[in-house]
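Hey team,

Filing this mostly as a record. A colleague (T.K.) asked me to run one chain through the structure pipeline before their review meeting, and I want the input and output archived in the tracker in case anyone asks later how it was produced. No errors, nothing strange. Just documentation.

Input sequence:
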Amino acid sequence: MIRKRNIKVVATLGPASSDADTIRALYEAGADVFRLNMSHGVHDEIAERHRIIRALEVEMGRPIAILADLQGPKLRCGVFADGKHSLPSGAAFRFDLDPTPGDATRVCLPHKEIFEALEPGARLLVNDGKLSMRVESCGADFAQCVTENAGDISDRKGVNVPDVVLPLAALSEKDRKDLEFVCDLGVDWVALSFVQRPEDVIEARALIGERAAIMVKIEKPSAVKVFDEILECADGIMVARGDLGVEMPIHAVPPIQKRLIRGCRKAAKPVIVATQMLESMIESPVPTRAEVSDVATAIYEGADAIMLSAESAAGQYPAEAVAMMNAVAEEVEGDETYRAIIEASRHVERKTMADAIVHAARELAETADVRAICCYTHSGTTAALVSRERPAVPIIALTPFENTARRLSLSWGMTCAHTGTVERFKMAVVNAARAAREMGLAGIDDQIVVTAGVPFNVSGTTNILRVAPCDESKIFSAEPA
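Output structure:
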């Protein structure tokens, strides 16, 4: 099933989308990647969803990427003796380590690491930022605060600490267990929550190894400050606008989104825009106009993927939400303004042979009568570089490694195929021509551009490019390459 768009759609699975029929419906509606949210669901449920996706993959004959999203440390206050309290603006309130049930003046915050990092003037945001408190004084086991606005506080509400870097690892004990589980299961991407610094990614890399690619969720102000360093360590980025919009001024999120997308495009690493993209479709069969514009903005900016969360996991219209994403993407990418924006925002420093090859491939494809760019790749690096170019023709990634094909399924414009190994460039061209025809992306009388590396079966050797016919008889009649 070949999409009529370049941007990819990520659909989160959950209670509303856990059976085989619904997951198939999501795929047919346009889902390219399935997200398994480790914050919800037990391991047996996650394993069953994984099994269904892999069976669907075999049935459809196309690689499907699976993204496991780790929960990360969750900071929550304790419980109250008599339920919810409504605090007025300017009220004094204390957080401490005393496990005694709280009241209208105090509650336990069972995270001593927070008190170790706090300073006077720092903010504590409760219940997704609905209640903001400013620290007036603090110590090793308390923080005396004053409320900055009226709001409610109740049992186990989440607490965000945006103004300081907390001495907390991005991986909790639960995350470490979940990480081993999903890596053994065979997911393609692992999303890291609560990343504050590059060291968090390096720690996860040591545990994951080569078993999965790492998608870093940018949701903390501290991560935004060191984004370039984090990007260097990561395989991909998720613009997690939910917590980011809680911990930073909400009007700061759109410029950050644009900067992160541009940084990822420059680095040839995929970027997902996530959170509340079609939020109203949890309960409504149609989205708001503002939501459609939000989705369109991410597409115009050149993001690799757009993501549905509760819309597909717990909403009443999961397949309709995916279909809406697909429809918006097709409409935007058919707009002539889209190509103008994509081309104007292409700023790439070309320093290597591979950079030059993929740049030439795009120029040839857009200048000559060429239907597709076909690239042979082992690690996926060459294909990622082609994707960075954002060509006006389809990209076909051919690889002997199934996990590489699956991971690349997240990247902009990529149609992936798991192929056998080849020893000669001519056979690579033949296989590319066959793949382009079988996928319906080229006809027997069309031409394609093929990139590869010689010697074959060695990563990082992209050094050859050919404009080739899709007619195999013409390939074999040509001079040997």
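Quick notes for T.K.: The radius of gyration is 24 Å. The chain has a mean pLDDT of 94.
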